[in-house]
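User: My instructor asked us to take a sequence, write out its structure as tokens, and then describe one feature of it. I'm not sure where to start. Here is the sequence I was given:
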Amino acid sequence: MGTRKALIAGNWKMYTTVVDGCRLALDVAKTAGNFTDREVLIAPPFTILSEVAHVLAGSDIIVASQNVCWAEKGAFTGEISPVMVRAAGGSAAIVGHSERRQIFGETDELINRRVQGALAFGLLTILCIGETLDERESGKTFEVLAAQLKKGLASLAVADMAKVVIAYEPVWAIGTGKTASKEQAQEAHAFIRETLGKIFEKTVAEQTRILYGGSVKPTNIDELMAQNDIDGALVGGAALDAESFGRIIHYQ
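Assistant: Let's start with the prediction itself. The structure tokens for your sequence are:
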């Protein structure tokens, strides 16, 4: 992994209201400890972003929004602007999650606008990419990943990439209990890193953190993190339980 600092990110999706969300955040802060070789991030729902950020003030935990608009403000019903995320205490955003793509029809072009908007306001940006089961079974995994990377990162400069994290989440492994084997995950991560080198330059490929997301659990985190090109995890269900998430943060 070299100089890349591991990042363990918890995506709470559409779970938790203010009381249980704040309690969970405090429990995570307690278990996260004071690591110097890894970072911890949580992405609560928009409705409790400010409360969660408030209870985590003084901790090293990064607070992220689960999506973000490209505009500072305006007539965008149902969206959240990067300025609002910042004002609520967030410093990061997840963009292009497979649920946004699959359920809400977000395109690579739309996702690219979100990436650019997040970066314009200094948010650490986690760009999610990944193939469906059909795409994997028809041998299109690399083709899909390359296209999502190129389109999602379009118009970005090398300097912008310092604030970008890539999350590889095979759509067929999200919430299904299926996990890509450590070999499958490493192969995809190595390909993503190689592609970043082609889009930008070798230093970008070497420095960009690539997270694995897709049924990450306490039972598989150690073997995933042992892979050369896996720099962390984007955790869904297991992030809603402080003990499980704590074990993932404390991977060996």
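For the description part of your assignment, you could build on this observation: The longest strand covers residues 6-11. Try explaining in your own words what that tells you about the chain.
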